[in-house]
Write a structure and sequence with these properties.
By secondary structure, the chain is of the alpha+beta class. The chain has a domain at 3-53. It has helices at 52-59, 63-71; strands at 3-4, 10-18, 23-31, 34-41, 47-50. It has a five-stranded antiparallel β-sheet with strand order 1-2-3-4-5. Strand 3 and strand 4 (34-41) form a beta hairpin.
């Protein structure tokens, strides 16, 4: 199923992944600048769009990198 939004972007894939800690909506979005993968935290309402290079760069990381993200998931306390 494909949908069009007001910014003339087309979404042609949409699904959710979840476990006891989080639910994330994943969408493939066609933009004027090319295809992006949009990840949205259903609970928090935050999202990010990643291009193919940004996605590939995730594969260059070790499990340790992601473990460090989870130590302070919302950044250092102010």
């Amino acid at each position: 199923m494909s949908t069009q939004n007001a910014d003339d972007e087309r979404v042609d894939r949409d699904f959710e992944l979840s476990n006891e800690y989080a639910t994330v909506r994943v969408r493939r979005v066609h933009t004027r600048n090319g295809v992006r993968l949009e990840l949205t935290s259903v609970k928090l309402g935050t999202s990010i769009r990643l291009d193919p290079l940004a996605l590939e760069s995730l594969t260059w990381q070790t499990s340790d990198t992601f473990s460090r993200f989870l130590r302070q998931p919302f950044g250092p306390a102010s």
